[in-house]
Amino acid sequence: MLGDAVFFGDVLANGGLDDRPARGGVLERAERLMADAVHADHTFFSTCGSSLSVKAAMLV
Q: What is residue 9's predicted lDDT score, i.e. its pLDDT?
């Protein structure tokens, strides 16, 4: 119904943040800090937009 244009809003973060080609450990460290802050075993941040986060949550 919405066509392919609905997917153009999800883009990878770049310009100094971790992404698939360049892993600097920033996201991994941030996820560990967040897990410590909320007393969780693990946390996972989505780097591909809210659409991917919703789809991942639906798979759990």
A: 62
Q: What is the mean pLDDT of the chain?
A: 75
Say how many CA atoms lie within 13 Å of 28 toward its Cβ.
Answer: 6
From the list 13, 15, 23, the residue with the least C-alpha distance to 46 is: 13
**Does a structural domain hold residue 2?**
no
Task: Report which of 20, 50, 37, 2 is spatially closest to residue 58, judged by C-alpha positions.
Answer: 50
Which residues span the domain enclosing 26? 20-59
Tally the domains of the chain.
1
What's the pTM value of the predicted model, to 2 decimals?
0.50
How far CA 4 is from CA of 9, 46, 54, in Å, comes to 10, 21, 18
